[in-house]
Amino acid sequence: MRVVPFSVHGSLAALPTPYRFGRVDIAAFEVLCHRQIGRGTSGLVPCGTTGEAALLSLAEQRQIIAIAVRVAAGRVPVIAGAGSNTTATAVELAMSAENAGASALLCVAPFYLKPTASGLMAHFTAIHDATRLPIVLYDVPSRTACPLSDVIVTRLAALPRIVGLKDATADIPRVARLRRRLGEEFLLLSGDDATQAAFRGAGGDGCISVTANCAPRLCAEMHDAWKARDLDKVFEIQDRLMPLHKALFVETSPAPVKYGAELIGQCSAKLRLPLVECTDATKKQVRDAMVHAGLIN
Fold this sequence. Notes:
alpha/beta
């Protein structure tokens, strides 16, 4: 039985971290947050994969989360990234996000180390026990080489503050499997833009979206249309956005989405090493996809 109620549906934005002269561009990040809320985004998700969390210092992550909370001002929830392959660091990030006023935590599976099932249980339990915030698990095995199996997710969901899963596996049948195991209250959020419409159709609650950084209103409208069961509009928006969904992952994210954000004047395309800006060929693909979606001329 959940003791921490938490619910969010629709399109949430996996926010990038803008830089200026190698430092976090605070002004640009504030603009990103305001724009998302103003265009119907249901929640802000800073310091995740798209936010280059693995390349940020602890102080930078605290700063970014605090800014997101301040800009959101209670209008939408802030689900703060608090992931690390070191449990002690993940706990520290989780505690600082709670102190900053975050609504919930996004906790990715530990990367590189490949812990056993017992290690995963111990890792997430330590984060859970250190804070009072709801926790959304994050399963992205293409990045972590550490999948969260249905069995592990189900066992973790027994903890009172484990409230949901961001699933970036594109395994659409999994939605129904987990829904049967975990019930309607457990949040199931897609982490794969290209399959988010199918994810909703299978019983999911929404998407933590990369594409929303370039097309926040369209992403929000697609989920609104799904809620209204306006399937013609769902498929119309999906067709408009599908080339962009694909283009944003031609190269390692977030390089393509930062370029897309630069095209609409939202932030610089700069990244931190070892990530570099995308190639000219990818830039053309992103630009063409944004033209197709009607986002730029």
